[in-house]
Every structure is written in structure tokens, then in C-alpha cells.
Amino acid sequence: MKAIAVNAFKDAPELIESVKPEVKPGHILIKLKAAGLNPMDWRIADGMLDGKMPHIFPLILGADGAGVVEETGEGAGRFKVGDKVFGQLMHAPVGEGTYAEYIAVPESVIITKMPPKLSFEQAAAFPVAGMTAFQLIRDLGLKRGETLLIVGATGGVGTFATIFAELNGLKVLATARGEAAEDSIKKAGASATFDYSAGDLAQQVKEAYPEGVDGLIDLVSNPEAFDQMTTVLKPGGIAFTSIWSASAEKLKAKNIRGGNFEVKGSIALLEGVSEMIEAANIEIPVQKISLSEAPEAIAKSKTGKALGKTVIVI
After folding, report:
1. Total Cβ atoms within 10 A of residue 102
2. Is 301 helix (H, G, I), strand (E, B) or coil?
3. Taking every annotated instance into account, which residue ranges of this chain make up the domain Enoyl reductase (ER) (predicted)?
4. Domains in the chain with CATH codes
5. 222: buried, middle or exposed (CB in 10 Å: 19+, 13-18, 0-12)?
6. What is the pTM of this model?
7. Element (H, E) at 121
């Protein structure tokens, strides 16, 4: 089968021929139709989980995927052959990922049946990013009408956070550079945008909202930049960083709640996000690429300039 893999940590991902996985007891074999591209994928390929989980090489990238159950192993009973499924399919050993034509996974991973209204591409787009964004908005606890600034808004998590925040009645302020990025994030629900390349971002926000904003989700800033961004918050406001840039002492000194955020995915959470997307009739904006185009898309993701959510069509 064809797959995107690395032969060692920090190697450049490449298209390879690999062996179709065999089905073990308690596992299911999925013929993948689409895979979602997440920054987490290349960070894992660069060694983010080295020493924390077992790895195999060549290491096939990818956690998010959607496809059709082709075979079930002994003792596996959650799904049957022909079921359309999707989810966050990462499991031990790391390296049996979704950037491939097939994947065999324990049926206990974060996977469920696809909603009838979603395409494979849309279903593959939101497990990691959607669950992360959903938990961020939920944990902020902001009330309808309050203001939320999202820094790094035009990526996958930022786009979903904008969608969910707008659904919850929040006024979303988003960072966006260029007309295409601005148009995309406004379609997702942002009411105002700030171009981070046009000068001091925190100062831009302060000038537009001198009374301060109620909440902050920062998906890209380093510790120094995150500390600066928290100055736009009202006293008692709340801020989360998804890349662990927060200092508990500095937030406490500013009377700001929140801190470093880590998603806690589950089957129940995935199903909840799925039901909300279907009920709200949300059209998930995705950029579709082929498996052979994945290495280039990964390189672009590493620059932090990728727009929206990229999905590999398999």
C-alpha cells in the first residue's frame, strides 16, 4: 500500500510502498478514504513522543482518518464490515498512521461511526482539531456576547474554535494575514480581524478594544509573545495556550485565569462534537490534496502559514 512516512525522527516525509497491515484480535482494518493533516503529526515525526510511547519505522504519519471497515479481528464487536467510521486513530506503536491506504487499529481507540451527512473528507477534518477547539471553548466558560480573541485563528484548531465560539454567541476577534485568510475566518464566524504582520498585535487590539477582551485562545505564540498578548485581557479574564507558553505565576500576577491547555479526547467527546456539527448543519471548510502532495503540505504546516484545514484524499 502507499503511505507517507519518515525513516527516522526529523527526516523529511516521503511517499513509500508499505505492507498492508494484518488484523490482530480486538482490531479492525479500515480502508482509508481521507486523513486530516495536523501539526501534531509532524511534531510526532520529529520525536515529540520519543521515550513516551513505542515507535516503529518507517513511521507512517497521521492520527485523524475516515474510511470503511474492511475486516474485523477476533473479539472485535463494535463495528461490522462495511461500516463508515472516523476518529483519532493514533495508537501504540506510533508509526501505524492514517496517511496511508489502510490502517489496522484497536477498536478501543477514539473512533465512531460517521454521521450520514458528512463526507469522508469532512469527517477526517475534525477529530483532533475539532475536539481541541470544542474543549477550549467549553473550558473558557465565556457568556454570550463576550469577546474572544483567537491568535492563530486561520489554522485547523483556530477555524473550529471560531465556528464553535460563534455558535455559542461569542464575539470572535481573529488574527488573519491577507485577504484570503480574512475572508476564510470571517466565513467561519469571526466578526473582526487583526493582521499580525501590520505591527504590534497586542497594541492593535488595545486600540480597538481599550476596555479589554474577555478571553484569549493563543495557538501560536511563544512564552514571551503569549505574556504580551495577555495584556489585552480584562482583569479576571481567561487565557489558554495550546503550545504550553503560559507561566502560572505571571497569569496570577495579572489576575488572569487559564494557562496551558491539553486536549483530553474520548469517544463520547468525538460523538458530541460530531452531533453538534451535524445539528448545526456546518459545512467544514477543507483544502483537499492527494497523498503524493502531503510532504509539501507538511512542510507548509511547519512554517505556520497554512490556511484552514488540509485533508488528504486517499
Report:
1. 21
2. helix
3. 8-312
4. 2-125+284-313 (3.90.180.10), 128-260 (3.40.50.720)
5. exposed
6. 0.90
7. helix 120-125
